[in-house]
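Researcher: For the record, we're logging two predictions in this thread. I'll number them. Prediction 1 follows.
Model: Prediction 1, sequence and structure:
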Amino acid sequence: MGRRKKIVEQCERLMDNPQQIRNIAIAAHVDHGKTTLTDNLLAGAGMISEDTAGEQLAMDTEEDEQERGITIDAANVSMTHEYEGEASLINLIDTPGHVDFGGDVTRAMRAVDGALVVVDAVEGAMPQTETVVRQALREGVKPALFINKVDRLISELQEGPEEMQQRLLSVIQDVNELIRGMTKDKDLDWTVSVEEGTVAFGSALYKWGVSMPSMQETGMDFGDIIDLEQAGKREELHERTPLSDVVLDMVVEHFPNPVDAQPRRIPSVWRGDPESDIAQEMAAVDPEGEVVLMVTDISMDPHAGEIATGRVFSGTLEKGQELYVSGTAGRNRLQSVGLFMGGEREEVDRVPAGNIAAVTGLRDAIAGSTVSSVEMTPFESIEHISEPVITKSIEAQHMDDLPNLIKTLQQVAKEDPTIQIEINEDTGEHLVSGQGELHLEVITQRIERNQGIPVRTGEPIVVYREMPTQASDEVEGISPNRHNRFYVTVEPLSDDLTAALKLGEASMDMPEQERRESLQEAGMDKDTSQNVEDIIGTNIFVDDTKGIQHLNETMELVIEGLEEALEDGPLAAEPVQGSLIRLHDARLHEDAIHRGPAQVIPAVREAIHRGLIDAGIRLLEPIQDVRIDVPSEHMGAASGEIQGRRGRVDDMYQEGDLMVVEGIAPVEEMIGFSSDIRSATEGRASWNTENAGFRVLADNLQPEKITEIRERKGMKTELPASINYF
């Protein structure tokens, strides 16, 4: 019997005991050593050879991941571990660290109950560390900390026990500060602590690790570690205190099992009736209950087709079941049920509640779907922290490949909800919007490599937004037949309200009372929150009218006109964000035939656009936080690179033997940054960027940029005469 087969059998035996299951994700900043650490854990569980662990990068199963040396897709693996005489089943997801693939991290957090945050001992907590901690805590996932690359403090920085402990303590303090600031439930203390055993230290590359409990058990202390490391006895270090045991012991001891986690997590990710049978079954992790599966990932297998991976909250998945997929009609039939073992999927007969399963046959599911044996309230949609900021046009080189390309792009959008695809069947040109240059580059490469479709891509185009900057006067929109009139005002929303809408803290899916409270918490006054008629993206529509005849049956058309107006703003047909639109009055023709879609939609659109112009609408550009680590002699060149890109440098400080330059810069100016920074610093800089939302483009640049976008979209380049404020 093969080793893998044996492990699958062990997993099957443990699956039915949710007390012995731990669902965890490994998350960190790019290059802090997540995948190397995962290799160690796989070797510890007997799944890969000890000798190749750390170099094999078993979870980077795609060719381009191995080539680039970064994780692009979240990868799942199930393994077993014995702790204090009891075996546990650990379902682990290795997530990407690069900011462009942050969507995978957000989706993985929905499937797990614990997040092992990995931090580089030399670099400390970085921007992406902050993002992954936030993603974990927003999903109610408990964090623990592994400080990696401690060997570098000893061998490279030559630090003694005192200095080393100071540095490690400051990393722990930074992470705890993030946890304290982001924990929603103030009664929960999820800060990590060495004494409690929720922090481990070590070197994933050299396969050794320690924690307070392991030191007490083995009698090792930091002095011994420094001596062995300096003497080059890394093999002995690994044998005396193997990393996989230390980390997996911590996982089993300190991460919650599904029985403890689900009653706490369900209310925050599901808005159904807490008294219903299905709510009770999910809270009890009942394998006999109705099937509830939350799909967190869709991937393609050349042989099996589409594989949906997700968390089973109740019931038991079995081949041949007919299940509902939220938001679609009819039912899908499960073709197979399995577990992931890294790149391979192993079929099993059944997967009960509390586990992470990989199934085929859910053709209607997308990442974020709720799949169940009875129709039910779906889970909250997974809110991705960042939105697409860069777009490329992509077209097939040969017209014969066009149908295939369209099919592939639809599949890409299904697998990765952070990608937006706009398909223009008339011109054969398709626009793909993603999180950054690398994101789009990887998508394009995979279409060519995996599907064999040669494609041409255009230059990257940056996605802009439009936003009002002041309150408007009341303006009028008149229908083409002059029989219907709408009177609206527009004002900017506060930053707090816009942020709450972006994070999905208030939405039209919520019960009305809950939505009002969320809006009031974010700073909206009581009267306004009671009249909210619709929320479109980060825009709020308020109905302030009183007793207008026929408005009720016309409201659907009003909202359609509103959506159209906000999708294409008046400046450059870019989406509008952060606006509060109030409908004050309306005059409607009493005959329904004279207030149909052809009359109401243009009238509402005209009113909204007039209101936005009167509210001083401006173009917003996406910006990024930039951090560059560079030797001090190249610091001037590095800060020059940011300032020369309309950016600003906010901070410069020394960390170890490197200088750190932090600042912000517009996404548009950052295109091509990687080659420029390399040549400016002789290739000695390492840097990373993090999307930081949108800011108003400087007034002197507005007319030129607006004209450029209008030209690109084939619109008239002259702006309406009323836009005279630039």
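Researcher: Logged. Prediction 2.
Model: Prediction 2, sequence and structure:
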Amino acid sequence: MKIINKTIVIIAVLLVNQFGFSQKDKMLNSDQAKKEAEYYKIVDVPIPNDIKLEVGGLALTDKNQLGVSTRRGEVWLVNNPYSKTPVFNRYAHGMHETLGLAYKDNGFYLAQRGELTRLEDKNNDGVADLYKTVYSWPLSGNYHEYSYGPKFDKNGDMILTLNVSWYKGGKSFAKWRGWLVKVTTEGEFTPLAAGLRSPAGFAINDNNDIFYTENQGDWVGSGRMSHLEKGDFAGHAESLKWTDEPNSPLKLKPEDIEKQSGLSMYDYAKKEKALKSAAIWFPHTILGISTSDILYDTTNGKFGPFKGQQFIGDQGHSKIMRVYMEKVNGVYQGAAFGFVEGFSSGVLRMIWGKDTNMFVGMTSRGWASTGKKAYGLQRLVWSGKTPFEIKTMKALDDGFEFEFTKPINKKLAEDLSNYKISTFTYKYHNTYGSPIVDQQKSMVHKAEISADGLKVKLTIHGMRLGFIHQIEMPKLKSASGELLLHNTGYYTLNQVPGGELKSPKMHMTKTSNKKIDQPKRVNTMPSSWGEHGADEKVVIGTIPGLKYDTEEITINRNSKIQLTLNNNDDMIHNVVITKPGKETPLKIGEMALNLGLDGPDLNYVPFSDLVLFHSGTVGPESNETIYFTSPSEPGEYWIVCTFPGHSFTMRTKLVVK
């Protein structure tokens, strides 16, 4: 083993410059990432070429070694993980998709697909010789049955979350799939809460309260974070099939939940008291697309000005978001902001190092991400400089109070035109995802600035309980002239202090469910094609990993084309046919990312001369057919999915002869 370690050190040293250069390139790809890097720098932990470190879990040992569990069923111990020459030692292997890791009592605990396992090195040779099953649960064999955790609560018990299966929608084929559960170190099992879909991240705060993050899907309109207590129902109806079990804390059944109520989650929770509405929404494609880990800032100011706040990973967008949370009338809620983007792969796990900087573990196999590497391990290091940011956003009964990290320019802060507010929500239904619905504009009526310039109280007309409140401050500057590093926040308003909302209603401002004419989307065969119809019929499908099922399609020029997208994936996709050019798919994808709240109404297709023809967004297990006449100019065109984040990998060459 010593010889192996020496070899790995040599390889790691050789890779340092290569990894540093690729990270520099990545950072330069985004103006926002360049700005963020002035305050928070992403640093590679070099990984030897012969290790596929698809990170599933991270934990520090008592000896300051970094434990890394992987999706390939291994656990690696990393010595000197803060240095440029870390040493990797394989501690354990042969397990099944380990998507969590914790360290306690001189050993590791981790969740495999079908069990909670303890690993221990009894003879102190650096390799686990004890693999102990603490508790096991049944599996159906479905690929989507991921298991996450554990994390220890204040009582020393372990909390885990179990993913649902996927077959034409989320299913709970095996017992307790879709549940939050507790297991003691002696193996005593307790189900706590149902209704989870894909609960990749969760955390326990100082009050022993449990929060988990959810990914968009059926019953889940957008990524969100919820506070869960024993007996709660988080929203996905499939897991309720196990409530007849004697140890179930709920009696609710799947058939008790309306599949298409037309209501938001907040409003449906008024009818079904067990349903726990989201504490924080992360607007889909705007803040992220695959919500992952939760990490509380416990550094007491050694990682910047966000003490006690939460950092939230996003696997699909390869970034970390920030959440300020408060408790109003006993209910958790708060605001989400951007924080740092530009990680090398999909962010799945985050922990604090002993130096109070952050380790970030990543993976993207099958779960494609904007970071192009298949896996990665990086550190997020605070430069010591404080960015100009919205530090906190607190709900009032008639507005919001904002605190900033630096004093603001009072003249700009008093100008009401420098604030833009709108409210919106999502549908709660069994359909995959949801469009943004019931979007309305609000109005800032008054701005009051504190004497020290650190706070602004905005009195607002048009606040609405149960809605996400988007606030934009693009022109606001600090007293020293800095623009906000992140100028938009998203507050999920479930309660107001005192319980009575005093913000006057806005009238005639509803802008949701817009019908936008998209002439390049033709899904009815033109009558001029006559009885003969299309000259050529093309079918394109999808495969896991954000890819179409073919890399190249050839058609004739000036031909009548009938193209069908069969989406047999578990995500939303579209097809957009673009003009030639190697960089065209990425340009179109970037335009789609910038559509913001208008994205769903536009099927994530920007108005651009680079777009020739396109479909709408097509949900899982669905299809759409479009009709167009192929270009008259021969060449290599592109078919690309412009659903945010997909254009990096999901494209097919369209050859016109």
